Amino acid sequence: MLAETAKFFRVMEMLYDQRRQLAKILSCYLRDPVRKTMAFPYIHGVMNSDEYVDFEKQEVERAALASLPDLVAIDSEATACLVLMDFAHDIIGVVHRLQGYPRVLYEFLQGVFESKAGFTVSKADSPPPPDVHEQYIELMCIYKPTAVFEYLKRSDTHFRLEQTLALCEKHRVKDAQAYLLEKTGAVREAFDLTLETLQKHIRTVLQAYRTGEDTRSPFHLVQTTLTVIIQLCQRNSSLKQPEREYLWFSLLEAVMGPCRDLREEVNKRAQTAKWLLATGMGGCVEVDVLAAFKGLMQKVLNCLVGHVSLASVLQKILQDPTYQGGTLREVKDLIMDMLETYNYERTLLETTNHLLASDNHVSLRQLVAAMNRGRVDRNRSTESTAADSEGASSIHSHQIQAAMRFHKVLKSPSKIGLFGSGDHRVAHQGGILQDPNFDLKLMPVRW
Fold first, then answer.
1. Tens digit of pLDDT for each residue in 417-438?
2. Fewer beta carbons below 10 Å: N end or C end of the chain?
3. Which candidate, 106, 107, 45, places its Cα nearest to that of 78?
4. b or e along 173-182 (b: 16 or more beta carbons within 10 Å of the residue's beta carbon)?
């Protein structure tokens, strides 16, 4: 055909359309560099149109599946959406066809599971089986290992835990492996694995500092990994005290070790070594290397307050060789910061208890006022009015008793003060003192 030799694809399309050769029309779109993206709406239009009979749709389906590598090369997300909408019944066959093209298969599955166009596997009528999802995770471990951890956190319900853990261990994606270990309950193993990564980054920073290289990038990795491991320790605060101390003190030792190494090295130098670190605002400042690691240690100490007893933390610090040979000035700021954090959390707890007690006081006052309020019904007999009043008093009494039981739940002693017109005060433990000599006013009493 002359039009085909001359690559007149639109002319060829018209001729094929007249002959109802739909598969060849698709090939025209794929070979046309200007209109190749129109192959997707063409396939979708044929598969959902009543104008074409079943065998014509099957012909287009076979041609589209045979051209999957070309379609993925054009647009992997559009190919994934097309398969999910029109060929969802054969997604296993699609994956099987792309087994010989691992990179193409990865891009296709990325479009299936992470499409930005709004149509993903979660919206499909028949989502792929778990082994297809795990194959995508394995390909991600190969082609983009740094994205595995974040992806697992976003979609932890679409894969099998044990099989995915084995894949991450096989390809040595340690952050994802630690995340999955924690989900299986192996907290210590997850902690040790993440701590190993942190120590590796610390060694890289120290080596770059000693050789005079740029330390900003490796130190950023130290900060990121430290944040991850601190969050791991905080999530597992329900562990027993020995286990919590192991996690926090091992982390504290990991950031105190560089301080010991650098202390001797810095003291040998005539001037304090300076280096550039990335700040939180994105700029760079010149700081002391020893002070930088002390800042990391301070961050760990601030985070472990509330999870480990204060006495154990102070003992750990004072027994460290970094501070044993120093003066009080070197540890004063560190201890004062810890005490300020402790006092802040204590004040926060006391304020919370006070607010709960105040709310309980207001509820009790409203119930007592309701119980003491008279009730008059002029349209009913005296006997029925008395019976109603007795029933209302019984209801209010039950409400007050329920409020008093809630009041006893508070950590502070359940004491209510009664204040009269004079300066004297009477307090009653766990109840309300009925006395006609006092104007009844309820409020929490601090003893």
1. 433 334 444 443 333 334 444 3
2. C
3. 107
4. bbbbbbbbbb
- Which runs of consecutive H residues, i.e. helices, occur in 319-381? 321-324, 328-372
**Exposure of 31 by Cβ count < 10 A (0-12 exposed, 13-18 middle, 19+ buried)?**
middle
Name the token pair of 443.
Answer: 């409020």
DSSP code of residue 421: S
pTM score, two decimals? 0.60
Residue with tokens 């709406």: 41
- Give the separation between CA 408 and CA 441, rounded to whole angstroms: 19
Count Cβ atoms within 10 A of the Cβ of residue 60 and give its class: 0-12 exposed, 13-18 middle, 19 or more buried.
buried
What are the structure tokens assigned to 341, written together? 């954090």
Terminal CA-to-CA distance of the chain, rounded, Å? 103
CB 361 within 8 A of CB 443: yes
Q: Is 226 helix (H, G, I), strand (E, B) or coil?
A: helix
Q: What is the DSSP letter of 279?
A: -
HSE-up (13 A, CA, CB side) for residue 358 = 6
- Give the pair of three-digit tokens for residue 176: 């994802």
347 HSE (CA, 13 A, CB side) = 6
Share of the chain residues as helix, strand and coil, in percent rounded to the nearest 5: 70, 5, 25
The more confident residue out of 318 and 108 is 108
CA-CA-CA-CA torsion sign (323, 328, 330, 335): positive
Sign of CA dihedral 51, 55, 58, 59: negative
Q: Which two tokens stand for residue 334?
A: 């560190």
The CA distance from 236 to 362, in Å, is 37
